[in-house]
Write a structure and sequence with these properties.
Layout (H helix, E strand, L loop, with lengths): L1 E4 L6 E4 L2 E4 L2 E4 L4 H7 L7 E8 L3 E7 L6 E7 L1 E8 L10 E7 L5 E4 L3 E7 L3 E8 L8 E3 L23 H4 L12
Antiparallel strand pairs: 1-2, 2-10, 3-4, 5-12, 6-11, 6-13, 7-10, 7-12, 8-9, 8-11
């Protein structure tokens, strides 16, 4: 596995070594000791799977209490994945970084606790799976507005279309009014 810090160094791009032949491929997607050594010591407690159609934008989500670190990857299709630093004490507060994750490139992304997370589906469909360091806590879930101009995420929205959003995501808060981390 190759571990590469992103523009926000706590967000880490992970590229597995893939062994393929005429039958298909094999890759190791997670190894605790290597993750602890190269990224951070974390305990994962929940795995999630999301399936979405092209043009769906999910996010930018976070939990103000019980914050979740997420190790994310795509097993079919392609998404543009985004992390926004919501740690007030961070020199990257309010900044974002993104990466294209796909079944083809097999790249994964580590998003630490203290970040809002979201993704936009570029392919006709996408299956997105992720490991979480804390349990889902709906009472503490928050949503940062996906198109907050102060954050200015450069989403690769399909020309001539608008993203498909949940009601919750349509009504996310601006960074200036959102609850953030110390």
């Amino acid at each position: 596995m190759m571990y590469t810090p992103s523009a926000i160094p706590d967000v880490v791009l992970m590229e597995p070594e893939v062994f393929g032949d005429h039958r298909g491929f094999f890759m190791e997607t997670f190894r605790q000791d290597a993750f602890d050594k190269n990224v951070v010591s974390a305990r994962f407690v929940q795995d999630n799977h999301s399936s979405s159609v092209q043009g769906t934008l999910r996010g930018l989500h976070y939990q103000i209490r019980h914050p979740q670190g997420k190790l994310v990857r795509v097993i079919s299709g392609t998404v543009f994945d985004v992390a926004v630093d919501l740690r007030k004490s961070s020199p990257f507060f309010g900044k974002w970084c993104g990466a294209t994750l796909s079944a083809e490139n097999k790249t994964m992304l580590w998003i630490p606790p203290g970040f809002a997370h979201g993704f936009y589906v570029l392919s006709p469909e996408a299956d997105f799976i992720y490991k979480c360091t804390d349990y889902y806590a709906p009472d503490h879930e928050r949503s940062l507005l996906w198109d907050d101009p102060s954050v200015a995420v450069q989403w690769p929205i399909i020309p001539g279309s608008s993203p498909l959003l949940s009601q919750k995501d349509k009504h996310g808060l601006l960074l200036e009014t959102a609850e953030v981390f110390a």
